[in-house]
Amino acid sequence: MEDRTFWRLAKREFQRNILNVLALVTVLALVLIGILAPQLAPYEPNAANFQRILEPPSSDHWMGTDEVGRDVFSRILYGTRLSFTIGVLAVALGALVGVSIGLLSGYYGGTLDAVTMRIIDVLMSFPGILLAMLIATALGAGIVPVILAVAIYSVPTFARLARSSALSVKEREFVEAALAAGAGDTRIILKHVFVNSFGPIVVYATLLLGGAILTAAALSFLGVGVPPPTAEWGAMISTGRSHMRFAPHVVLFPGLAIFITVLAFNVLGDTLRDMLDSKV
Amino acid sequence: MLVYTAKRLLAGIPVILGVVTLVFLSMYFAPGDPVELLIPADSMGSAGEELVQQLRVKYGLDQPLHVQYFTYLQRVISFDLGESIRSGTSVAGELLQRYPATVELAVASLILGTIIGIPLGIVSAVNRNRLLDKASVGVSLLGISIPNFWLGLLLMLLFSLRLGWLPPSGRVAGFWTLEGLQHLIMPMVTLAIGTTGILTRLTRSAMLDVLGEDYIRTARAKGLREQTVIYRHAFRNALIPVVTVLGLQFGALLAGAVITESVFAWPGIGRYMILGIQGRDFPVVQGGVLFISVSFVLVNLLVDLFYALIDPRIVYS
Asked: Is residue B209 a contact partner of residue B237, using CB atoms and an 8 Å limit?
């Protein structure tokens, strides 16, 4: 997409609806929070204080304390950093593998395409979170297994997206011209096919980022993701649920953090998709 | 139609085989010896060589990989999904016993999601860019963004723990009874919220596509009432992709039920799998994933066949 076109479309979409602006601001704010968590957090995320367990929000602890007296607000700030790290790495890894497979499969076609798409069909036959659960159970709890589980779960859709773009772009005249000029396959795939597929991939990656953060939180909630005492939003809800009757804040605030993050990415992803549709 | 049906059924077989293969290979995802996944949790760390060897023989891990694979295939075909490490009970037996509870929850959630999502999508499309449309789009976005495990806990906190209107957990068989329905409401709403959001967005999108078609313009030009145009012409054609997604959503709900069952201690397959995860009971997790995934593939096949019934162009294309 030409720079001028991109910025014109962006300006139109963001002016059209204030929610789009709010979503962008929210995402940027969350990124900053993640980066500056150590500076912003008033307490260490794992600093327990058994004198002040399950306290409600107060001037000392803006979001209260949890079952071992840790500051919930600080843990949410650190959790932002962890959630974004997991989400970005998982989506990036999924995109790298999925897009590569899809571009090669779509460009070369033939047996490679047939075999690859059957494997992708099988991966897509695992509904939702199940594949991620199976992988995370096999690999054990931890940040790396969660990243791998969520990445593998996103590979099929990236592959299909990239393949679909490759199939349509490879028949275009500029690709034919490049071939006639003696360009090699690698150059054509990277410089023409991939570049023209970039828009839909970015839109999907943005939409998936929210989903990846949600999936990682769900895995931690189920006990097969990031284990306690790490400050992870899903794990905080999991450990806090048995206390929520008298201390609902231990479940309320981490859940709100997940909700706002996922909502912001979904709105941003929708905005990017509308921009792409307008361009088309 | 028969030829199309046969083709779709045949196409489903390699996919099911692929699912079974991937589930079989999942034991090898973990670094190290796969037999470690089969050691009971209370024997971990102290498991002697004798126990390890016994487990290897019991689960056929001393055989070459291809022999293990074909043995696994044979067992799956005869519906033998192994035994729970924790309880020693048959995994297949437990799954079959719990399946009705999961199906009840998934069907109830699908019905609720449909009753709310489709009309909301129609209203949204017909009132495009007006307040009703923006509100519907907003509600659907909230629906697909909210973590359902969090929503479930909030509903439990409000309606059970604070107000005491509904029981916090468990299931009473028979949703047609008051007690059964009371137990079903919160898990059903929790699971339905995502489906409602998806169906609203999809119905809106499908209706907008159809409302732009020439035959709709013709219907209006003929002087038909707007209600007739919307429901008799537009909605019927918009329904085709929506029905397809409804079927796919059922499969997704079977998987989504895993989390909801965990929140509400609903005695379905999902809860059984979660207990398996927490107890490192790998055969349970493996069996549960296989069971739900194959159900998902079969549901997708049925959706393809149903789609061909309502849109005959598919058969001839």
From this structure: no
